[in-house]
Amino acid sequence: MDYKAIVVGGGHAGIEASLAIARLGFPTMLVTQNLDVIGKLSCNPAIGGLAKGNIVREVDALGGEMGKLIDASMLQFRILNKSRGPAVQAPRAQADRFLYQKLAKETVESQKNLHVYQDTVVDLILDHEKGLCRGIVTERGRRITSEVVVLTTGTFMEARIFIGEYRQSSGRLGEPAAIGLGTAMRAHGYRLGRLKTGTPARVKKSSIDFSRMEEQSGDNPMLPFSFSNEEIHRADHSCYITYTNDETHNIINENMGSSPLYSGEIVGAGPRYCPSIEDKVVRFPTRNRHQIFVEPEGADSEEMYLNGISSSLPEEVQYRFLKTLPGLENVEIMRPGYAVEYDFVDPTQLLPTLESKMHKGLYIAGQTNGTSGYEEAACQGLMAGINGALSLQGKEPLILTRDEAYTGVLIDDLVTLGTNEPYRMFTSRAEYRLSLRHDDCDMRLFPKSRYAGLLSGKAMELFEKKRNSLEEIKELLQSRRIKKADVENAPPSVAGHVGDSLFKAVKDPEVTIEELAEIEPALKRYKSQWVKHAELDVKYEGYIAKQEKQVARFKKMENVKIPADFDYDAIEGISTESREKLKKIRPLSVGQASRISGVRNPDIAVLLVLMGKENNVSAE
Amino acid sequence: MTMKDFKYDPDDLIAALATPWAESALAVIRTSGPDCIEAASRVFHPSDKLKNAAGNTIVYGYISDGDVKLDEVTAALYRAPRSYTGQESVEFFIHGSLPGITKILELLFRSGFREASPGEFTFRAFLNRKMDLTRAEAVQEIISAKSNQAQSLALNRLSGSIENSINRIKSDVTDLLASVEIQLDYPEDEAEMPDVEAGETDPIVDKIDRLLSTYRAGRIYQEGVRVVLAGKTNAGKSSLFNLFLKEDRSIVSDIHGTTRDYLESWISIGGIPVRLFDTAGLRDADHPIEVEGIRRSNEIIDNAHVILYVADAREGITADLEAFMEAYKEDRRCLYVWNKIDKAVSSAPADFIKVSALTAEGFSDLEDAIKSVVFRDHYVPGNEPVIDSMRQKKLLEEARDALGRYSQALLDGMPMDMAAVDLTDALNALGEITGEVTSVDVLERMFSNFCVGK
Ligand SMILES: Cc1cc2nc3c(=O)[nH]c(=O)nc-3n(C[C@H](O)[C@H](O)[C@H](O)COP(=O)(O)OP(=O)(O)OC[C@H]3O[C@@H](n4cnc5c(N)ncnc54)[C@H](O)[C@@H]3O)c2cc1C
Ligand SMILES: Nc1nc2c(ncn2[C@@H]2O[C@H](COP(=O)(O)OP(=O)(O)OP(=O)(O)O)[C@@H](O)[C@H]2O)c(=O)[nH]1
Ligand SMILES: [Mg+2]
Fold first, then answer.
1. Which residues of B touch A597 (CB under 8 A)?
2. What is the Cα–Cα distance from B69 to A209, expressed in whole angstroms?
3. What is the atom index within ligand 1 of the atom nearest the CA of A138?
4. Is the dihedral of CA A138, A143, A146, A148 positive or negative?
5. Hey, is the C-beta of A609 within 8 angstroms of any chain B C-beta?
6. CB atoms inside a 10 Å sphere around CB A492
7. Among A274, B110, B172, B265, which is 20 to 30 Å from A324 by CA?
8. In the prediction, which pLDDT does B98 show?
9. pLDDT tens across A1-50, in order?
């Protein structure tokens, strides 16, 4: 074997996968089409957002890189959804995408055990008889062998981009598609499909009249994504808001015929949660304006990103409708918007480790599995990397469950249900989202992180410190009572709690812990984010406890394992439909089986009986 | 938020009727689960007797709903692991009248038990016991229980119209949840933000309440409208009973107190299934058998949907009649029958239905009067759906309560992510009736109802 592991693709999934395996001590090759675009933010120059920000922090807690990269390259930081509740708040940052990419490349280049190499993979070396993956074949004809291969091809496999009439075999504008691998995978018996996504134009900063737009600045101070970073000191860069209008929509409507989206030429499904401006105009004809964000692509760049107006109309039409937006009257397009269509692999062909069911040693991660988004790609890359390394170590795999992490929800959804549009994470996909807060990723994932073995000693120390502090804070809240003298200058909501413990007072939705810190200054000794963390734990205890009951129920079913070689044909009495589905998905647990669409409750009961007493379903 | 929930959790308290769903002398309700005895004793009188009884014993007492005694029963009590399921279990041997069974099951479902899924007792038995049951047997049991339930489901399957109306309610809740989720899944500036207010659940709750109010009507169609012939001895109740049946079923004589025990029979009045009861005439009796007969008459009167109080027109207005009318003056179930008009001595009081059991004169007026009471109190006009199973009723109530909690949470200033938990509960309860709603459905609704995405 030439390497222990080969990672194909230097995008967000490939970076995490290759770093994880190399860091765990295995000689690894990262092979990608072009070394100059490692870690490129293909679309939006931003990391995080609702649910996605939680994923970034999960990746960080498990020892991944994304949080550190964005901490070192952010131009603006905001906590979103502050008013909607703790479970759905999340950090989001504008990135200097040139800096992000530079740091990503430097990180993989300087990683011990990691050989970064430029070539395009056109085939895999597969042993069909033994069901093994043995390495890769490249465009330049090299056969490179390894025990583990992680495939992260992003939007590049057999990809085509569209701008009006223009077609190009590319994965991103100006970057050739990876041709051959998709066809080879099909020939090897994999089910592949087509998906599409799009991106808006990048325009020149100095051609924009910002005085006609609303300015939006970020939170001060910026907060780090990474649990190992204490604070961030960088200058805040503003974004700007403008709106489309009737004239914009008229131009788009008149030219709909020349959109490849509506000419039937693109067969792949696009993301409904992030529609192109053409889609918005068609689907919401009564709306007379759509909000557009103008975001910086880099601190030293003239390029600005127009968030909310992705389009694949002809460039000349893009010009015409952009000029109708206030502030963009004299806009200069630097790169046009476009749509891209690419091959993805039906992820139900994978195990929850992201390893192929057909070929041991082959892992697939990122957009190749039908997801979209940097964060979704990164967490899969990390999990594929960790599991590849664990299998090289001969250890049990690491599978995150739906109650532990958005990453667990994402992978479980993919391998159990598959997808027919680019899959993006939403908080509503997680049934136990109250337990998946972003500030708490380190606390809930720590045992897993330790098992994965990627965390630094410093990170472990910090974890211990935070855990102890949270306990101390809660003890303090329990033991300290509010006295009359305490509330002389306090707001009425606090004054009403004389005689109560701080613990009880903090449960009141109208009382904040900052107000209580005025009464008990000892609270100020702790890091403010940790105090906030403790507050949320206490304030929503009731709801969280309720959810924990559901989690306990859920866990019981997850813990009933189904052997990998289980023979579904030998079971009597389950419906044919259930049997076919079970055979296709081959769930690892009865819990996973129960989530397969179309498998019914009595069939699950039969499975449970067959998996039997030794699995200890009952609490007894 | 896939809202799929596995229904065989062995730590739940479960209950089910173990005997067929039919009128019979005796019925058995089986319950099982951790702390089952404690839970069962809460609906049992004397409660302590059951709670403290040793395993494998029989306890005699009443099932009682608060202070109201529902039935006189014996309870067989099993302590873990010496029971069929290996968990604590109580089996109630109760009287086998359908309304009685229904009441007791309803009480159990309100008291922490849920309806057992097919084969669930066997399923637990298998998991908990080390002997007796083989794996194959256990599977076989579940399969056959499944097909039994399928049969009974086919019998009381969801009628199309009820499915539609529950789906409409579900759709309303899904819309509401989508408008909440859009705010949770997109920051303000990435999607249009609908207003979300506490009161929005009101119209949905109204719809659920309307559907719930059809529950009694639904049951009546399955179990028959209970119509009782009551009145003084010799008033002609048995004669009328025979006239309804068009056969001489009940003994008729001019001896007061001829009918000693009640009789019942199924008849149809204008297409409505009716269970007609002839009862022992009401009077101050001293013979113990007659006293018992009159006690039963009163019990049947209490449980009836329509009471036909038969008065003897030959006797005119008597003190007994006046006393009865006074006692039941608020009771809309009563119809007064002025019988023996062929021999009447005085004219009928207003609102009395004038009939002769002898000549059948006025009989069709009597039938019409019964129909109008049934229609007024129990009938649901046109194609409006009725719910007819306890399970549907319970789940609708759960949904309604969860919607209430959601609105209350908003009023209390709880953040939306917490309040959404209750909306999800409501949707889950509705989903259990007509098929689950998954997060994919909710996302679907978000994308189609709101313009989203930067
Ligand atoms: C036009 C466009 C629009 C997008 N729109 C959105 C959006 O609206 N919302 C959103 O969340 N995300 C969007 N993204 C997606 C986002 O860029 C990806 O989700 C993310 O980059 C995926 O990461 P990845 O690691 O899976 O793949 P990528 O970042 O695509 O990286 C894949 C890498 O692998 C290399 N590679 C591929 N095949 C081979 C091969 N055979 N041999 C060697 N190297 C190979 C490629 O050169 C590339 O460097 C968009 C991307 C594009 C291109
Ligand atoms: N003339 C006449 N006699 C009737 C009529 N209805 C009943 N009778 C007679 O009244 C007597 C009592 O009738 P039953 O039907 O036995 O009366 P009951 O109410 O069942 O009496 P108990 O069973 O004793 O409570 C019998 O002799 C009947 O023949 C009627 O409409 N006209
Ligand atoms: Mg009689």
1. 438
2. 81
3. 42
4. positive
5. yes
6. 8
7. A274
8. 77
9. 999 999 999 999 999 999 999 999 999 999 999 999 999 999 999 999 99
pLDDT of residue B408: 94
Query: DSSP string spanning A80-147?
Result: E-TTT-GGG-EEEEEE-HHHHHHHHHHHHHT-TTEEEEE--EEEEEEETTTTEEEEEEETTS-EEEEE
Distance CA A366, CA A373 (A): 8
CB-CB neighbors (< 8 A) of A555 in chain B:
none
Helix, strand or coil for residue B291? helix
Contact criterion met (CB below 8 Å) for A345 and A228: no
- Spacing of C-alpha A471 from chain mean position: 30
pLDDT tens column, A577-611: 889 999 999 999 999 998 998 887 778 888 888 88
- b/e burial code for range A185-210 (CB count within 10 A of at least 16 → b): beebebebbbbbbbbbbbbebebbee
- Burial string for B117-151 (b: 16+ CB within 10 Å, else e) reads bbbbbbbbbbbbbeeebeeeebbbbbbebbeebee
Distance CA A331, CA A324 (A): 10
- Residue listed under structure tokens 């007994």: B320
Q: What is the mean pLDDT of residues A295-301?
A: 97
Centre of ligand 2 from the C-alpha of residue B255, in Å: 9
Nearest residue CA, atom 30 of ligand 2? B340
Residue A189 Cα distances to A135, A147, A185, A600, B245, angstroms: 17, 20, 7, 29, 74
User: Once rounded to an integer, what is the mean pLDDT over residues B86-109?
Assistant: 89
Q: Taking 80 as the threshold, does the pLDDT of residue B294 lie above it?
A: yes
pLDDT in tens, B206-262: 999 988 887 766 666 667 789 999 999 999 999 999 999 988 999 999 999 999 999
Query: Locate tokens 């390394």: which residue?
Result: A389
DSSP string, A435-496: G--GGGHHHHHHHHHHHHT---HHHHHHHHHHHHHHHHHHHHHHHPBPPGGGGTTS-HHHHT
Question: For residues A18-37, b (16+ Cβ closer than 10 Å) or e, as one string?
Answer: bbbbbbbebbbbbbbbeeeb
Name the β-bridge partners of B68.
B65
Which tokens sit at A380? 């899969």
* Residue B36: Cβ within 10 Å count: 25
Lowest mean pLDDT among A61-65, A275-279, A340-344: A275-279
CB atoms within 10 A of CB A173: 16
CB contact under 8 A, A620 and B86: yes
With the most atoms of ligand 1 within 8 angstroms of its CB, the residue from A32, A100, A195, A272 to mutate is A32
pLDDT-based confidence at residue B380 (cuts at 50, 70, 90): low
pTM over 0.90: no
- Write the DSSP string, B186-246: S-GGGB------GGGGHHHHHHHHHHHHTHHHHHHHHH-EEEEEEEBTTSSHHHHHHHHHT
> CA angle B390-B391-B396, nearest 5°?
100
What is the CA(B318)–ligand 2 centre distance, in A?
Answer: 17
What residues of chain B lie within 8 A of the CB of A241, using their CB?
Answer: 189
Determine the atom of ligand 2 nearest the C-alpha atom of B355. Answer: 31
